Amino acid sequence: MIKTGALASLVVERAGKAFVAGADGVISSPNEAALIRTLPEAKGKLIVTPGVRPIGTELGDQKRVTTPAMAIKNGADHIVVGRPIWQAISPLSAATAILSQL
């Protein structure tokens, strides 16, 4: 089990190792994107963040989420917004609403 507070440092450590090993980017919770972005090895690398939820949508099975705007502010290059779009009555309207918040 990971101790409280240790998760962020573990994520940053592994992201750094991935970059040193030659990875073009990493996938991480939007909560750690800002910390990863501070790594010198992260310069020019991609950060993809799933678990992005617009304000007012169900969390579903996601526990470590943030809004699309906050994920980008935290340093994400790409965000993954799944169910809030594809389960919407109008996926196009849902995606357009998310884009308008950015």
Commentary on this structure:
By secondary structure, the protein is mainly alpha-helical. It has a single domain (6-100), classed as Aldolase class I (TIM Barrel, Alpha-Beta Barrel). Helices cover 39% and strands 9% of the residues. It has helices at 6-20, 33-37, 68-73, 83-86, 91-100, and strands at residues 25-27, 46-49, 78-79. The chain has a three-stranded parallel β-sheet. The longest helix has 15 residues, at 6-20. The radius of gyration is 15 Å and the shape is elongated.
SSE topology:
Blueprint: H1 6-20, E1 25-27, H2 33-37, E2 46-49, H3 68-73, E3 78-79, H4 83-86, H5 91-100
Parallel strand pairs: 1-2, 2-3
Beta-strand content: 5-15%
Stretches with pLDDT under 50, minimum 5 residues: none
Which term fits the overall shape? Answer: elongated
Approximately how much helix is present in the residues? 25-40%
The name of the CATH architecture is Alpha-Beta Barrel
Q: Describe the biggest sheet?
A: 3 strands, parallel
Number of helices: 5
Features:
5 helices; 3-stranded parallel β-sheet; 102 residues; 39% helix; 3 strands; TIM Barrel; 9% strand; elongated; mainly alpha
Short description:
This protein has 102 residues and is mostly helical. Helix content is 39%, strand content 9%.
